[in-house]
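Re: the multi-chain job from yesterday

Posting the exact lines I submitted so nobody has to dig through the queue logs.
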Amino acid sequence: MENHLFRGIIAYPVTPFHSNDGGVDVPTLRSSIDRLIIDGVHAIAPLGSTGESAYLSDEEWDEAAEASTKQVNGRVPVVVGISDLTTKNAVRRARFAENSGANAVMVLPISYWKLTEQEIIRHYAAIGNAINIPIMVYNNPATSGIDMSPQLIARLVHEIDNVTMVKESTGDIQRMHTLHQISKGDIPFYNGSNPLALEAFGAGAVGWCTAAPNLIPQLTIDLYEASQVGDLHKARELFYRQLPVLEFILKGGLPTTVKAGLRLKGFEAGVPRSPLQPLTREDTQKLSELLKQVNQ
Amino acid sequence: MENHLFRGIIAYPVTPFHSNDGGVDVPTLRSSIDRLIIDGVHAIAPLGSTGESAYLSDEEWDEAAEASTKQVNGRVPVVVGISDLTTKNAVRRARFAENSGANAVMVLPISYWKLTEQEIIRHYAAIGNAINIPIMVYNNPATSGIDMSPQLIARLVHEIDNVTMVKESTGDIQRMHTLHQISKGDIPFYNGSNPLALEAFGAGAVGWCTAAPNLIPQLTIDLYEASQVGDLHKARELFYRQLPVLEFILKGGLPTTVKAGLRLKGFEAGVPRSPLQPLTREDTQKLSELLKQVNQ
Amino acid sequence: MENHLFRGIIAYPVTPFHSNDGGVDVPTLRSSIDRLIIDGVHAIAPLGSTGESAYLSDEEWDEAAEASTKQVNGRVPVVVGISDLTTKNAVRRARFAENSGANAVMVLPISYWKLTEQEIIRHYAAIGNAINIPIMVYNNPATSGIDMSPQLIARLVHEIDNVTMVKESTGDIQRMHTLHQISKGDIPFYNGSNPLALEAFGAGAVGWCTAAPNLIPQLTIDLYEASQVGDLHKARELFYRQLPVLEFILKGGLPTTVKAGLRLKGFEAGVPRSPLQPLTREDTQKLSELLKQVNQ
Amino acid sequence: MENHLFRGIIAYPVTPFHSNDGGVDVPTLRSSIDRLIIDGVHAIAPLGSTGESAYLSDEEWDEAAEASTKQVNGRVPVVVGISDLTTKNAVRRARFAENSGANAVMVLPISYWKLTEQEIIRHYAAIGNAINIPIMVYNNPATSGIDMSPQLIARLVHEIDNVTMVKESTGDIQRMHTLHQISKGDIPFYNGSNPLALEAFGAGAVGWCTAAPNLIPQLTIDLYEASQVGDLHKARELFYRQLPVLEFILKGGLPTTVKAGLRLKGFEAGVPRSPLQPLTREDTQKLSELLKQVNQ
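And the result, structure tokens for all chains:
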């Protein structure tokens, strides 16, 4: 299993839509991925929360998954978000991602009805059995409605061979402490909560899964590097510099704010899909000021 | 607007799946609707949470919506759950339901990313503008991840012509008090939390949206009728008799427990769709005992 | 054990303070108790949350407990709130209340550090062993910081002889359902959440512990009586009439709002003890209007 | 204002009680303070949560406050916890602490009834006006029932001259980020949540208010020093080494666990005051093992 591939800044591209018919704008998706790689991020994660994966039809999802993986073309590792409400379709997507060349898949146990622990385990096992690439468990109760304890996550890692990585997005640093403790440091965990970036690296996260590199790539990379060399003072300074942007994009919803920010930076990636609405004029102005303050 | 049609016990059928390929079992869906009507419920609500609507493909959803409405065939009113993540598809489903003969549609603002109040209002307005039948606003943060305050719900009712009914499923009786107060009793509200049935009728709910009639139809009807004539002592007695069943089916997830209960009653409707799993043997035994205790 | 004594409206007097030195104003305390009895309440509960018991010195508490019990003088039953942070002083107060003639004591497991279930049980057992009158268990996590489950409460009732009554103030009607179910209706429970009065009587509460009779005595008594005869329609009408007042006095803090309301009704009971401040002018105006609307 | 005095490890002694009559054991209190100073902590904070301040009578509190301050005798700075339910007694205690030689007082807005922001401000202002030493605002909703936002805390600092320090015990690192941001780094904040020690120093906390030095003094000091020099790798290693002890003593209640731990280390400080009970035999065994593992 090649999870050692994923370290550092794992960047989440948006999924651009055409302004005329609202369909997926594949050429712009490709360009947005190129931007991130050129800016130096360490991995690409298409079709995550930022990528509005939940709002795509299966045909759109397939198209975006394939285009993303091909566009990266081995320059950096790729982890594709394959979450779906039914196990059957999640399995289908996982296979599709593997066949498209993904290095790993990311799985959120998204559901309408709450799942029991046994149902969650069977869901991951079904996906794990269907593919030969690693799975990154993704815990994000705020969007999925399901909260997996560190103990359950550790069970998934131990019981399912290709579950090898954990993305924690609760924003609760104690979850990372617990993952570290119950695995004696053996389960690699990744931070999915932007305003926790400093603390997550402090606690030993091996990577930061984030949409922020779409807007402030160098700052996210610098924070990772300062943490890697153990320079707490520099890491703190870098973190507080970018924190206003991190808080803003999280609070306003990542697809909404990141697409607005890309437009401000001169990269047109359209607006999010309805019911999500474009960032208001007032908030766009605020974001513009925040981006100017960080000088990127 | 014909929302006066909906009163009393609004019953939620399950969506049966074939045991071989997992597809929607339309003949059994039809029979399950007949059972409910024969048992005396006052309205039918296909494709709600109990109907595993969220787990169906569009084709399956269309088939189930049409079959359900045709099967009811005017014997009682029908309200179809048309919720979907994108506004575009929710609109499409609402039109489809209207064309199939539904008397109303039920709309949960289901989303992956949290919606702002403005986004929620636009979502409902888009649906409202597309159809000529009433909309029942459905608030159920436990499944949708979005909690609409009574104030927001009242705005929807006042600003969008065909939003005329409210299904409240938070289980918080104070929400109903507030709806009653801010509308001076003019907004008809329906209870969607089974263990709150006694109190909701006490507070003035005009109906109870429930999957319980699949298993204990007469008790639910009797509770409604005792409440209607204002007999608190009888309503309390009836409520406590059925409460263990109501609590059990809610706690175990309605599709899971109701399908298990239907099998116990000799009506085979299959099992829920994966990742949802069939009720465990132990819990099925417990449900069997609870159903015997209520003598139905 | 004489807990059958307590039924209906159990009224909570305020503890008036002198305007000059802030000490307890015993003559006014006596008059306020007389008002409640003359207005027809079924029992008196001095030194509860409304009585600012937590803010009194031991000397003040003793004086108020004795004066209250003597003033009632057997006209109605008396249950005295004896809660204190230390078990030792709670025991002392319980004995003092018994010696002063109280018919029962009410005990909230108030604490600074969270208590384990075993610590809670020992606290109640120590008090129970020290007195020969019944104990009303009082659950109010919003003020005490400790939430006792219905299961723990039932244990207290079963394991400690003179724990015979339960005051539930979480505002969660399901707690009352559970108490009813696990005791097969044998544990008498009382409602301590004003905006839940209708539902609590519906669910079978034998009494309502409330400060509202200081301001709207007849409405509270009428609601109890309508519930007793099982007239749901009348109970609902009475409840919605008084609900705005019930919500207002709870939200603003009972000592603050009830003392303001007493002043509005021409009964001067002073202001709450600092850090609690008198009701603002604006809120006093609002309360005045609410009281006029209910015509009392 | 001399708040620059307080940096690093601010240690919380327990308040020992006599085994015979349960009264405050002043000689042992003095010895326990000496232990902490000899072990190298940077400040002493008597009569905090760990010191069971809430469970003491006024006479006991005065005795403990005076003895503690005298015992420190200027060797390190002293901040005395003066929290009380009434503003009047909090003011009295603050003056007493100042007169006893305290360098600062710590104030938690403990209350029975929730306080409005205005009530909280007046409470702090009354204390501030009564003394000439700095106040450390203490936010700990888990014990006080009152949660002060960073915005309210900043108002206290700006509006009341001698409010100059903030102890944050919510365990939410984002509160510290916000305090840093809204004050542009000018409000010195201290961490009061043991399992957040690594992250709090990372985020810029100038001190750690903790009872842990009673059991593992050198590890707490080493963590502070590694953070001060900005050595993230060393700080992380030190933190994870002591984290099991930090989690254990917090979860079991600080007076309970720290007194048990002192006994294990051969320093007899008695047991906490009832209703708090001594640590169970099983948990004491667990604590013993944890202490052995950290080699102190």
